[in-house]
Amino acid sequence: MRLSALTRAFGAASVAFATFFPLPTVAQSSSNNDNNNNDNSHGQSTFVTKDNLLAFAITAPDSAGRGLYFSLRVHTSRAWGAVGLGKEDMPGSLIFLLHLNAAGDNVTFSPRTARGRYEPEHFAALEYDLLDGTGVDEGGYMTLNARCRDHCRSWPGGAVDAFDPDQKAIYALGALGAPVRDDDPDAPLGIHRDVGVFHIDLRRTNDVAGEEVATRLDDDSVTRGAVLVRSGRGGNRHLQSTFHAIFMIFAFLGLLPAGIVLIHIGGWVRWHIFIQVVAFVFVVVGVGLGVSTSLLYQRARNFRDPHQIIGLFVFGVFLIQLGLGFTHHTRFKKNAGVPTKLALPHMILGHFIVTLGISSAFLGFPFALKGQYMYVLLGLTILVTTVVFGLMFFKKWLQRRANRGQPTSSQQQQPWRAQAGANVAPRAGWGSTETPTHSPPRAFGYQPTGQSSPQIRLSDMSSQTSLGGGGPTNDDLGPAHTPKAML
Ligand SMILES: *[C@@H]1O[C@H](CO)[C@@H](O)[C@H](O)[C@H]1NC(C)=O
Q: Where is this region: Disordered (predicted)?
């Protein structure tokens, strides 16, 4: 009794240890399992996970030549389930993967090979037949019974030794909920949530004969001729795509529109620069996360999806935009407020970047197999658009209101300048000195040079808003006030 209590305590301790340090755990010899194998009627070796969400059975009869018989049973609470033969890690494994068919009333078997630690690719060369019992049962289990005829004892990149009592194998279970429903054995998949390593005894199945060659699995199946080596969560690489989305949406729907509003409405140049540079940092990190996520998935590894192409294009244009903005700003300061020709391209490019970036986000969610989140994105987009245009129109309305009672001549002379001047006039000293009293020749970012106060120089970016052209904001020019007044 004391010994068994001690054994139990040690067992519990080692389980706890294995939970925190899953890697160094060493497998017991799987032949130990044969000792308590009282129910080996089918002669198959069987592995069942502790949570019973996945089971795998295999026979390697001598009579099967280069073939194998196997069964895979996976609960439909998971997106997919898979077993890999030959290795304790993905690279080089032959993978049998199971998910629902498109109708959801049967299974799709997807044989795959893994070349690295990323989504395995469809292995079309595997020759197999589906056997009786394949389908979905009322308990919500998908079951595959198969006879593999060829390319399952060796495959490009790996092999199993059918006479080995201790063959290496892995398993994985997809995300909770939202099961994959696809008839295509090459369907795009999300990353695994749970993974594990087990060893399975093929030697003990070599002499099965007759009906026993075919494997089967049901609710009563238990682990026989197999041993779990380690199991755990499938890592946190799925967070890469989550943070890619968070960073990008924060940049394109938060920071960049805020930066645009600051320059359009207030002419707050320093804040505009600061916020757009912060946005760029978020975008750089977001691009890094996006690229590293792309390497995990077959559909993304060659960077041919519109989301990736448009996204990288926007990133390139953003780089140009930064250069443009800083060049414009520097020249403007150097020339004491003489307008530069870069103002209009800078503004147009800015709006283009935000629009295209948000469009790209809408393509990103289905690409990540998370189409349902597009409604959140749509809601955010509508909210941000409403706030941005609301602010623009509010500003316009304030200007119009302030204009009432102004001499009509000033409005006729320079509507865009005069409005701004009229707007700020009631607030004493708030850039009102920059209101032109004459009618200057209209030019890009014109600022009355006769009043070359230092105030004007830093307000260069606001001059964009005085440009002609379409858009709801072109007469929303901010008064050319000093950043000091704002900060
Ligand atoms: C499911 O598919 C298998 C293999 O194609 C087939 O044998 C079986 O009859 C199907 N089950 C149902 C319910 O359609």
A: 405-487
Instruction: Indicate if ligand 1 lies below 6 Å from the C-beta of 134.
Output: yes
Spatial contact of 86 and 168, defined as CB atoms under 8 Å apart:
yes
- Averaged pLDDT, 276-303: 97
Centre of ligand 1 from the C-alpha of residue 221, in Å: 22
How does 38-48 read in b/e, with b if 16+ C-beta sit within 10 Å?
eebebbbbbbb
Q: Which residues, 6 or more positions from 93, have their beta carbon under 8 angstroms from its beta carbon?
A: 84, 85, 86, 87, 113, 114, 120, 158, 170
CA of 475 from ligand 1 middle (Å) equals: 67
What is the spatial distance between Cα 23 and Cα 161, in angstroms, rounded to a whole number? 24
CA–CA dist 455, 248 (Å, integer): 35
* Residue 349, number of CB atoms within 10 A of its CB: 17
Asked if residue 74 has pLDDT above 90, the reply is: yes
User: Would you say the CB of residue 106 lies under 6 angstroms from ligand 1?
Assistant: yes
Show the tokens assigned to 125. 């060369």
For the ranges 26-40, 187-201, 405-419, 470-484, the maximum mean pLDDT occurs at 187-201
Question: Does the C-beta of 131 come closer than 6 Å to ligand 1?
Answer: no
Which atom of ligand 1 is found nearest the CA of 130?
4
Report whether residue 130 contacts ligand 1, using a CB cutoff of 6 Å: yes
User: Rounded mean pLDDT of 410-432?
Assistant: 35
Q: Determine the residue of 134, 136, 141 to mutate for testing ligand 1's pocket, defined as the one with the most ligand atoms within 8 A of the Cβ atom.
A: 134
Q: Which domains does the chain have, with CATH numbers?
A: 27-33+40-235 (2.60.40.1210), 239-404+449-486 (1.20.120)
The per-residue b/e assignment along 409-431, b for 16 or more CB within 10 angstroms, e otherwise, is ebeeebebbbbbbbbbbeeeeeb
Question: pLDDT band at residue 12, thresholds of 50, 70 and 90?
Answer: very low
Q: Is the Cβ atom of 143 under 6 angstroms away from ligand 1? A: no
Q: Which amino acid is residue 348, in one-letter code? A: I
The mean predicted confidence, pLDDT, of the chain is 80
| Both structure tokens of 311 | 């996204």
Whole-angstrom distance, CA of residue 366 vs CA of residue 363? 6
Q: Does pTM surpass 0.90?
A: no
Average pLDDT of 428-445?
34
Q: What integer pLDDT is reported at residue 128 of this predicted model?
A: 97
Q: Could you give the CA distance from residue 121 to residue 110 in angstroms, rounded to a whole number?
A: 9
